[in-house]
Amino acid sequence: xxxxKRYRRNRWNQGIRSLVKExxxxxxxxxxxxxxxxGTGVKREISTMPGxxxxxxxxxxxxxxxxxxxxxxxxxxxxxxxxxxxxATESYSDKSLIARAIKALKQALPELYVQTDIALDPYTxxxxxxxxxxxxxxxxxxVEVLAKMAVCHARAGVDMVTPSDMMDxxxxxxxxxxxxxxxxxxxxxxxxAKYASCFYGPxxxxxxxxxxxxxxxxxxxxxxNRREAIKEIALDIEEGADxxxxxxxxAYLDVIADARSNxxxxxxxxxxxxEYGMILAAAEKGWVDKERAMIESTTAIKRAGADxxxxxxxxxxxxxxxx
Length: 323
Ligand code: PBG
What we know:
alpha/beta; TIM Barrel; 12 strands; globular; binds ligand PBG
């Protein structure tokens, strides 16, 4: 039969499939979120996130070293805060767990790119990303604390701060504070389009950071909105973000694609804890193959337009990519 276009020819065998492949993941695209706790010799699996660990600083350094050997260039640190209070004072203390973790990592592994989360939720006893006055999560006072936190991490030697709080004006304030303190080479990856998502559940379990009352809908975006993401991203770039992030990733591929087509800056996507957990749970039931689901999901995130991916699969994925 004469069929003028036979697209299956380009899928006929592995050779041609390899040649026409449009998207290829690299270990170098990955950022591994890591969870630091007090103590020494601690490596405890996080019950809500199997395959991920609460690590004391000494163990963190060891695991980060193996990660580097696998070709993963960057980590994003979250600290388990034991001294939560109303003012999130631990968040900007030079003695904080995260400040000590940054120092230890940069000293042992100077080539590791170290990022830290900037938000108040693990540090406040109410679990909100900003300060709370009455029923309100107040904006401007929160931004001042976030800027102090960023400068504190810069003093400890961080390469990039990643504000995840979604307060208005925080990127500009952090840039200004860093520049004023002579940290003009500390970069900012902003969680520019971060949605009020149900998929953060396992992460909040890991840090005991779920809001004690209310929800995050007055600062994180409504999952129903797409155009609003473009405005948020544009503003963060204007305020000085070096990289902008879309979060979560798998359910927001349209937003990642919009970010890619509208802006020239590097785009990050956060494949979040609930997205990770869904794959693990389905694999445990025998409903999907875990390895294939891991590769397909992260490839799709890159195909949509992400230059870099924060994922809990980073070590496993890097091991797979190494072959
Ligand atoms: C803190 C923060 C959260 C995540 C990253 N930074 C939780 C939240 O906003 O409630 C979620 C990450 C994940 O689910 O993997 N602001």
